[in-house]
Amino acid sequence: MAKPPKAFATTGRSRKGEPLVWLTALGLTLGVLMTLWLLGLVVYKGCQTFWPDRLQVFEVKTDSGTEKVAGYEVLDRDRRDGDGNLHHEVQLFRGNVELYGEKFVFLDSSSIVSREQADDLLLVERLAGGNVIGRAKAIELADGSRMGPEDPSFEDELEALIEVNEDRRDELRDVEKFQIGKNSKRIKELELKKRLIADGKVGGSIPEIDAELEKLQAEYEELFAEKVKIEELMKARHLYIEAVDGREIVISGESLLHVLRPNEVGFFGRLGEMLRRIWNFLTMDPREANTEGGVYPAIFGTVIMTIVMSLFVTPFGVIAAIYLREYAKQGPFVRAVRISVNNLAGVPSIVFGVFGLAFFIYFVGGVVDGVFFPNAEEPVYKSGGILWASLTLALLTVPVVIVATEEALAAVPRGVREAALACGASKWQAIQRVVLPASLPGILTGVILAMARGAGEVAPLMLVGVVKSAPDLPIDVTAPFIHPERQFMHLGFHIYDLGFQSPDSEAAKPMVFATTLLLITIVVVMNLAAIIIRNRLRKKYATSSF
Amino acid sequence: MHEMVTTADRIDERVSQAAVEVRDVDFCYGSSLALEDISFDIPSSQIVAFIGPSGCGKSTLLRCFNRMNDLVPGARVTRGTIHIDGVEIHSPEVDPVELRRRIGMVFQKSNPFPRSIYENVAYGPRLTGVKDKGELDGIVESALRGSALWDEVKDRLEESAFGLSGGQQQRLCIARTIAVKPEIVLMDEPCSALDPVATAKVEELILELKKNYTIVIVTHNMQQARRVSDQTAFFYLGKLIEYGETSRIFSNPERVETEDYITGRFG
Ligand SMILES: Nc1ncnc2c1ncn2[C@@H]1O[C@H](COP(=O)(O)OP(=O)(O)OP(=O)(O)O)[C@@H](O)[C@H]1O
Ligand SMILES: [Mg+2]
Fold it and tell me: Is A291:A509 a contact under the CB 8 Å cutoff?
């Protein structure tokens, strides 16, 4: 029986292009996998930072018998020593820097005699010196007597101590930062005025100023005394911890932040602790050379800088693109300009940093200082600040916006333009009311790309205003509330600083991952916001399907 | 109505009976001649149909009337004059923006703005400075009624114009054009993308509009030209071959090319 003839060949030469399709699919798969791997690693490591691990007590062989050390395991790995022998070792976080000097230690597996989870171990967080691990020994009460953990009200006392110290820290911050800050600012102003009067530059009476200065000085002394009093009160209380090897650690009430029993709490307790740590990470100021505490100022700096950058780059880029596409006489000159703009996107970002330093800070900042702050002792605008950083990044990202806007303008159908003109619109009216709205989604795509690029840029920022630690935020409650000249912190720079500049890189590693995760999250959130806006607009100004 | 025309500009009152006078016009795209030696008059309040094979220059001539060709680089009238209401439209004192307010245009492909239905129609009046909401509402309603679209869209004025069908979009474009209250309406194949029902509606509309406007319509549909127009102009290879009363052109053409074209023997 004859087979029915096949209508079409399904294999062979008719599918010549197929290997190429596979190649593109392979490329895409590789790219996606690598991105997923990177994201997965960052998410895993970032979350791990906050998850409270169980504490273990290790008994370790030493030359003279055994020794106990408590902590949680960070890493286990195989290492080849100088003789080529393979060792298995465990990295332990043991805290208690005053006893050991180093927060982390490597234990050779062969030297570990035993390991056990002891229920009554405490993990104490403190302001300075890092975490302490050990057993509660005693707490010093207000009257100077000690209370041991066997006392039934020990837990309540400990909690009360932490709480009262929290309030006192708030009080102290208020006195130090706002009241003393205000006072010394006023004193500085008056002293400057006094000097100016002495030089005969402005009128006024020196004795009057002297009187006020005296009053301010008295006020300062009062405030300082208050500050000292609060500090004394905090320092008067202590928590005594006994490390597993029997040595005692004294934690001053001033430094005591939080106490956790990681081996006693259940899953939800640990979850709660993790949320608390994340919250602290997001809202607190950094401590201990940035390796502990939070990154709030860096988040704030990153977000504000990105927003300010977008506010500069969007109008500038859009106007430039409108001129290039709609008004400039197309020819070799405009073509050259366009090529230059495109190439600008390829200039290494550090070059923009150098330019920003030279042009914005030294030149523009110098002029601003000369005109508005001729008597300031320190440069105001003639030093790195968030305004100059935003402007530098705006320059860096403007090609992206220009190119995207030009494309979007070119994509507006000719018919729509002609219709606007046929209704009696002038060229500008047609652009303003019809062409621009129709190309808004495309323009926003450019802004989104620019934001993503700007938020992740670090190198140029180091030259124009980013610092390791900025005492004050660029926006705060002291007049004039917005301080564009202030230096600021940035998550990208924070990562660099933690990971590569920190004296204790081992201790900073978890923070590096957490900060990376945060930076990625912030960029994604900002982009999502822009994408949602774009989709709204796209719906509103949907292009014809007809 | 004739703000832009000063008495001095006005030429012979007798010929200004005609809405458009075309005299000896040559038109070039760059170096290629698209129209050659065109001369004829379009009388006021009449419908004139342009017919002819594809590429013969109908759209080009139409776009000369509202100077839409200014937008095309290298396109220009190289010889001759076009007077509208007695004024040479290429003379320097004529502002093309003002000219286009008086000479509306409906395009072959419907091209609503990416805005709401209301905003589409209100666009022209807004440009002339109408800000009062009540006045705008009135203009929008009468324009939509004028283009026989009101009943279909009166409940969805704030919706996107792209939600309309092709025929509705085309009628919306007509409404947008007449909302500016032009004196002359140019229509470039307004029905080419429409089904017979929508076409019939638009034709009805054109006949209705004739009461107030002078209309020039380009069409490839002989029946349509015959149904709606008073005068017909036949173009061939950039030349005006024959121009006259529609009934005469279709019953008794003088030129053999015209006869061949309308009977479908070529083109
Ligand atoms: N923008 C342009 N640049 C150069 N040549 C053009 C341009 N537009 C039209 N032409 C040429 O001018 C001639 C007339 O074109 P036009 O569009 O006026 O024809 P038409 O009669 O409207 O044709 P159709 O019925 O197909 O619309 C054609 O030969 C065309 O190739
Ligand atoms: Mg045409």
Answer: no
Q: Is the CB of B69 under 6 A from ligand 1?
A: no
Distance between CA atoms of A302 and A518, rounded to whole angstroms? Answer: 11
Which SS3 state, helix, strand or coil, does residue B64 take? helix
CA A159 to CA A137: how far, in whole Å? 15
The model's confidence at residue B121, banded by pLDDT at 50, 70 and 90, is very high
Chain pair A-B, CB pairs under 8 angstroms: 84
Residue A454, both tokens: 């700007």
Q: Tokens for A271? A: 């979850």
Q: Which residue type sits at A12?
A: G
In angstroms, what separates the C-alpha of A416 from chain B's closest C-alpha?
Answer: 5
Q: Classify burial at B5, counting beta carbons within 10 Å of its beta carbon; exposed 0-12, middle 13-18, buried 19 or more.
A: middle
Query: Ligand 1, atom 22: nearest CA belongs to which residue?
Result: B59
Backbone torsions φ then ψ of B212, nearest 5 degrees: -110, -15
The nearest CA of chain B is from the CA of A10 a distance in Å of 39
Name the residue in chain B with its Cα closest to that of A439: B114
Residue B115 — pLDDT band, cuts 50, 70, 90?
A: confident
Q: Pseudo-torsion of CA B29, B35, B36, B39, nearest 10°?
A: -140
Radius of gyration, CA atoms only, chain A: 32
Distance from CA of A414 to the nearest CA of B (A): 9
pLDDT tens per residue across span A15-30: 667 788 888 999 999 9
C-beta separation of A146 from A138 below 8 A: yes
pLDDT tens across B89-112, in order?
Answer: 988 888 999 899 899 999 988 888
Whose CA is closest to atom 7 on ligand 1?
B29
Confidence of residue A3 (pLDDT cuts 50, 70, 90): low
Measured between beta carbons, the chain B residues lying within 8 angstroms of A438 are 113-114
Q: What's the pTM value of the predicted model, to 2 decimals?
A: 0.79
CB neighbours of A74 closer than 8 A, spacing ≥ 6? A91, A92, A93, A104
The whole-angstrom separation of Cα A43 and Cα A271 is: 17
Helices (H), A284-348: 296-322, 332-344
- B184-188 vs B214-218, strand pairing mode: parallel
Ligand 1 binding pocket includes B100 (Cβ within 6 Å): no
- Between the CA of residue B53 and those of A218, B187, B251, B254, what are the distances in Å? 99, 17, 19, 18
B12-56 pLDDT per residue, tens = 443 346 788 999 999 999 899 999 999 999 998 899 999 999 999
CB contact under 8 A, B68 and A437: no
Please list, residue by residue across A407-430, b when 16 or more beta carbons sit within 10 angstroms of its beta carbon and e when fewer do.
bbbeebeebbbbbbbbbbbbbebb
Strand, helix or coil at A511?
Answer: helix
pLDDT 10s digits, A192-226: 888 888 877 777 777 888 888 888 888 888 888 88
Contact B113 A545 (CB under 8 A): no
Sign of the four-CA dihedral A507, A510, A512, A515 = negative
Closest Cβ–Cβ partner in B68, B111, B160 for A542: B160
Instruction: Give yes or no for a cis peptide into B190 (omega within 30° of 0).
Output: no
Q: What is the per-residue pLDDT across A73-92, written as a single tens digit (0 to 9) for each?
A: 888 888 888 888 888 888 88
